[in-house]
Design brief:
By secondary structure, the protein is mainly beta. It has a single domain, classed as CheA-289, Domain 4 (OB fold (Dihydrolipoamide Acetyltransferase, E2P)). Strand 1 and strand 2 form a beta hairpin.
Length: 168
């Protein structure tokens, strides 16, 4: 995966003007995150809870010696809770932060596919009167006649990870 990731620059793949995006489902909607941010996809496994962590932070996992905070996107997006199933996965993201590179896991209902999104099809997120919504939505695209909400990985979890004790 590292070799594959390093061969691409700035998320562009193949034709200029396309981005590869890992798509996943959450609460009946389809979201996407830049494939360059994805470090690993793993099945759900229980986490170690951290006292006084933000509500969306389920806890931490030991990933080959690295302690990785795990954020439940259903809680982060204020969606109804759901039982974790065999399809529930943790997407481990590699993020650029003020303190350097770090990893964080996000819990999603299931992973769909890696798709190419033409950059010209990406539209800005509509103004909905809530700045909190737009802070982590990079844009909205259409792929195979389906709306795809593109997320900014760094902004998605940044305020969840700024809690003391969760710094890697």
């Amino acid at each position: 995966m590292e070799k594959f990731r390093d061969s691409r620059a700035n998320g562009s793949v193949g034709n200029i003007g396309t981005r590869q995006v890992l798509t996943f489902s959450l609460g009946g909607e389809v979201y996407g995150v830049d494939i360059l941010r994805v470090k690993e996809i793993r099945g759900w496994s229980p986490v170690t809870r951290i006292p006084q962590a933000p509500e969306a932070v389920l806890g931490v996992l030991n990933l080959r010696g690295l302690i990785v905070p795990i954020v439940d996107l259903r809680v982060r997006f204020a969606l109804a809770s759901a039982e974790f199933t065999p399809l529930t996965v943790i997407i481990v993201l590699s993020l650029r932060t003020e303190t350097g590179q770090r990893e964080c896991g996000i819990v999603v209902d299931n992973v769909n596919d890696v798709v190419d999104v033409a950059t010209e099809t990406i539209r800005p997120s509509p103004e909905l009167g809530a700045a909190r919504t737009n802070e982590f939505i990079e844009g909205i695209a259409t792929h195979d006649e389906q709306m795809l909400i593109l997320l900014n990985a760094e902004n998605l979890v940044s305020n969840q990870l700024s809690t003391p004790g969760l710094a890697a």
